[in-house]
Amino acid sequence: MSQHTIKQIDLVYLWVDGSDPLWRAKQQAALASRNDGTAINTTGRYVNNDELKYSLRSVEKHLPWIRKIFIITDNQTPSWLDIHHPKITIVDHREILPPEALPCFNSRVIEYFMYRIPDLSEYFLYANDDMFVNTNLLPSFFFGTDGLPIVRLQYLPFQRIESKFKNLMNISINSYRKSIDNSIALIKKKFGVYYPGVLHHNIDAYRKSDFAMVVEKVFKEEFQAIITHQFRTHKDIQRIIFSYYALAVGRAHLKFATRKTSSRIRVHRGEFQEYLDRFQSDLFCLNDSERANDEDRALIRPFLENLFPDKSQFEKGGVSYCSTV
Fold first, then answer.
1. CATH topology of domain 3-307
2. pTM of the shown model
């Protein structure tokens, strides 16, 4: 399969405005009804600094070949977004999630069902709204010449040993890392393979058919057991399982990410521009967390506005940006 036969590559985002009072009320009601001690997730997971606006600016500027952009939301729409733009489609949770999974505040569960988006191309990219493109990239950055997705992992040679040690010593493992361990265990049991790394925390490439195979057939029972997890738990399966599966069955290419190809910039550390200038990263993520405070987050918008100052065609009143790669 040659590269030019991939005619359609789409982009999918998950987006939420955590400041929306209606959404917050629904979240609080779901938490109250659980009565199981579930903690409210970190502020950084839901806070809205308009990162999506700037991520779209970066995509328009550097990935002009994207066919369609799907934004998965929970009955929300960014106020600045031109929802009538032919490339933009808002996808509500109710369109893709099974009824028993609603309402859902667990991004892991929402990600399982991205493949159900109507009209989604077989080849697609997935991004959180805090992920950005920093240079012109061709489709070959994401897909091989045979059409298979390139899986970029952060190389962690001692990952398995570290997880086993923490379990033996009864050291607490956060739900993010535990969900990855769950994915690793399933792939190891099913295919007898282990990959020493986790996703590079940036824009990833997928094939829709791999999602369908994993959710509906290969690990159907395991996914059925967790789709009702409204909030993140230690029993979740992390999205990396789709990449591990594709690698295990020979439907993907493995590459280990470098800071040149992909950088994860921690919001609480600041110095965003200095980091980019140092590594000249192709992709970067502004990773918010419980370590960041409001003063740290206040630096995000000015930084992004300076980096991507021109309105995209996806914004109300925006002007199309013409670029070639």
1. Spore Coat Polysaccharide Biosynthesis Protein SpsA; Chain A (3.90.550)
2. 0.90
